[in-house]
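Q: Hi! First time doing this. I have a protein sequence and I read that you can turn it into a structure. Is that right? Here it is:
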Amino acid sequence: MIVETGHFALVLALAIAIYQMVVPMYGAARKDPRLMASAVPAAYMQFILIAGAFAALAWAYVTSDFTVKNVWANSYSDKPLFYKISGVWSNHEGSLLLWVMILGAFGAAVAFFSGNLPATLKARVLSVQASVGVAFLSFILLTSNPFERLVNAPFEGKGMNPILQDPALAIHPPLLYSGYVGLSVAFSFALAALIEGKVDAAWARWVRPWTLAAWMFLTVGIAIGSWWAYYELGWGGWWFWDPVENASFMPWLVATALLHSAIVVEKRNALKIWTILLSILAFSLSLIGTFIVRSGVLT
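A: Yes, that's right. Below is the predicted 3D structure, encoded as structure tokens:
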């Protein structure tokens, strides 16, 4: 029952994300304060529902519910509790659910901390943010459902890849995904600014803290990942220019440039087009990095 509740929560989150994508954007075009303000509770509810779905999947792992295909394929009864929990995101479906939960958390944070934003800009930023959620929630529900049931449930699970049974698994993916997803806020601000036709020093001042937070998460995530690869895989160095490493390094480079460019916009009112381009490019590279690693193209 908990598993079905988690699946239903994802469906509801998708419905709310669609509402948040369409209605506040329409309200901003019509200058309707009531419709624009509805983006805030929608962002909160979307995060709560996705977090509930994630908790339901985590509960299935903790209780070793092998009727769930995802749990059966990536866990076993005697697995330590620590690795049962971190095993939730050790696979394709679970990691995408973690990704979208972090996306919902950033959306809720934007709704909470952006009280000083102009109403139209705030509504458009949250609408663009919701559009990313619509894409990922649709992808999860249609192609990567983590709550899929097995008709004939086995008594024991297949277990997790031994390489992944490491404390770094509990730290590295959440930090890396927080960096990836954090850049979606800069992307949302960039598209909202393009829709409004206004990029100024105030806009750069609002974008910079979110970009800095994403850059910090990405930096620590990459550092822990290189340390993990060094002692676990025995590559003979902290950095081996592996495609997986490069997939995370490219958005980090662009995010670094974006930070400096946003400062120039804020202080000198220059490099506006370049900053918009970097905001879009940084998140685009984050999407590429996510799907290159999670799609199975690279192993």
